[in-house]
């Protein structure tokens, strides 16, 4: 029953003191409307995670909780662990408190909150994950836009397919939160995770608004770190490329070596020692990279093993 859906709206907050009041107010309005339409239960709530803010964010969260003790909950990190960990803590925290589904959204409400209803509708239709996809990147500057698109393209080439312009605005059902709890890896790349695990999924398209107060908490460095984590935690293709490159260089070295020897023997037109040097350098260079590539293959195996990801995930069971 739709009206039994206990929705938790999870918000990661880093130095967002100025926004907590207006954001929670607006989201409570959205929740009121959904409650009136009997789409979510009266026990739905907002869960704010303070990611070790340096301003008075936690104080503002505490005030919000005091104003609406049944509808707003909060947690505070001891220091800044980053947006991905704040999202993770929010989702797992809400799952522990109890919920049917979680929607994650940014504190600045740049992502259109009016779409929450559409996310809930999709959940009621039976989808376990609903991805929020940005209609455009109008609010991003040229650098952010280009790097983001390049990242999605690279991920696609490396064999990790996820829709471009996909964001951390998404709905995740309780079943998927239980699966998430089984993943113990330290640097879980959420966008990769939600695409990899399967389950019935769909998308909701939304517009991005400009940030009303404050600045973006991300810079090129933190975005690059996120992208590198995304690539290295979901793809071993870069490791495999070393092997392929080494093999090609080895063949190249072997061919040039043969050619150098033939040139020396047949035409005798190269200086003394040249053939030997070129042969040895190119051949051993190739062999070295090829051997590194073989080590990289084993490294890839270790990498997959240490992550201890579950070997399979069951979406439904009929007993
Ligand atoms: N955020 C966080 N920890 C951080 C950086 C950001 O929890 O270390 C939160 C931030 O408060 C916001 C969300 O992540 O709710 C997205 O951040 P922001 O709006 O600055 O990112 P952008 O819109 O530029 O992608
Ligand atoms: Mg933002």
What would your notes on this structure say?
By secondary structure, this protein is an alpha/beta fold. It folds into two domains: 2-215 and 310-318, Spore Coat Polysaccharide Biosynthesis Protein SpsA, Chain A (Alpha-Beta Complex); 237-307. 53% of the residues lie in helices and 13% in strands. It contains ten helices and seven strands. The chain has helices at 17-36, 57-67, 83-97, 116-125, 142-157, 174-182, 190-196, 220-234, 237-267, 274-307, and strands at residues 7-13, 45-50, 72-76, 101-104, 129-134, 166-173, 201-206. The protein has a seven-stranded mixed beta sheet, sandwiched between helices. The longest helix has 34 residues, at 274-307. It is elongated. The mean pLDDT is 87. Residues 12-14, 16, 51, 80, 82-83, 86, 106-108, 110, 216-218 line the site of uridine-5'-diphosphate.
Distance between the termini: 22 Å
Q: Tell me what the CATH architecture of the largest domain is.
A: Alpha-Beta Complex
Largest sheet properties: 7 strands, mixed
Number of helices, where a helix is a run of at least 4 consecutive DSSP H or I residues? 10
Low-confidence stretches at least 5 residues in length (pLDDT < 50)? none
Assign an overall shape. elongated
Number of strands: 7
Total individual domains? 2
- The residue fraction in helices comes out at 40-55%
Strand order of the largest sheet: 3-2-1-4-6-5-7
Structural class: alpha/beta
Query: What is the radius of gyration computed over CA atoms, rounded to a whole number of angstroms?
Result: 26 Å
Which band does the percent of strand residues land in?
A: 5-15%
What do we call the CATH topology of the largest domain? Spore Coat Polysaccharide Biosynthesis Protein SpsA, Chain A
> Ligands in the structure?
uridine-5'-diphosphate, magnesium ion
What is the CATH superfamily label of the largest domain? Spore Coat Polysaccharide Biosynthesis Protein SpsA, Chain A
The first-level CATH class of the largest domain is given as Alpha Beta
Instruction: Give the SSE order as H and E letters.
Output: EHEHEHEHEHEHHEHHH
Instruction: Estimate the mean pLDDT confidence.
Output: 87
């Amino acid at each position: 029953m739709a009206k039994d859906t206990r929705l938790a709206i999870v918000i990661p907050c880093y130095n967002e003191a100025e926004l907590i009041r207006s954001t929670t107010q607006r989201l409570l309005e959205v929740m009121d409307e959904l409650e009136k339409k009997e789409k979510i239960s009266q026990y739905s709530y907002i869960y704010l995670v303070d990611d070790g803010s340096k301003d008075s964010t936690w104080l503002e969260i505490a005030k919000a909780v005091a104003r609406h003790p049944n509808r707003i909950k909060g947690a505070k990190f001891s220091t800044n662990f980053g947006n991905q960990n704040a999202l993770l803590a929010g989702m797992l925290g809400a799952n522990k408190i109890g919920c049917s589904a979680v929607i994650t959204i940014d504190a600045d409400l740049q992502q259109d909150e009016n779409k929450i209803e559409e996310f809930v509708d999709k959940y009621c239709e039976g989808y376990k994950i609903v991805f929020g996809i940005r209609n455009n990147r109008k609010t991003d500057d040229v650098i952010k836009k280009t790097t983001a698109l390049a990242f999605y393209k690279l991920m696609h080439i490396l064999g990790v397919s996820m829709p471009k312009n996909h964001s951390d605005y998404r709905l995740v059902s309780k079943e998927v939160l239980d699966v998430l709890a089984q993943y113990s890896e330290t640097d879980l790349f959420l966008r990769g995770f939600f695409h990899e695990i399967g389950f019935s999924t769909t998308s909701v398209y939304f517009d991005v608004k400009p940030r009303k107060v404050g600045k973006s908490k991300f810079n090129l460095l933190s975005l690059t770190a996120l992208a590198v984590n995304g690539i290295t935690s979901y793809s071993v293709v870069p490791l495999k490329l070393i092997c392929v490159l080494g093999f090609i260089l080895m063949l190249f070295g072997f061919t040039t070596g043969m050619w150098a020897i033939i040139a020396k023997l047949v035409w005798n037109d190269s200086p003394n020692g040249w053939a030997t040097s070129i042969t040895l350098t190119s051949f051993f260079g190739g062999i070295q990279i090829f051997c590194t590539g073989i080590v990289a293959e084993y490294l890839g195996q270790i990498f997959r093993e240490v992550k201890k990801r579950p070997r399979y995930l069951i979406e439904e069971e009929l007993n």
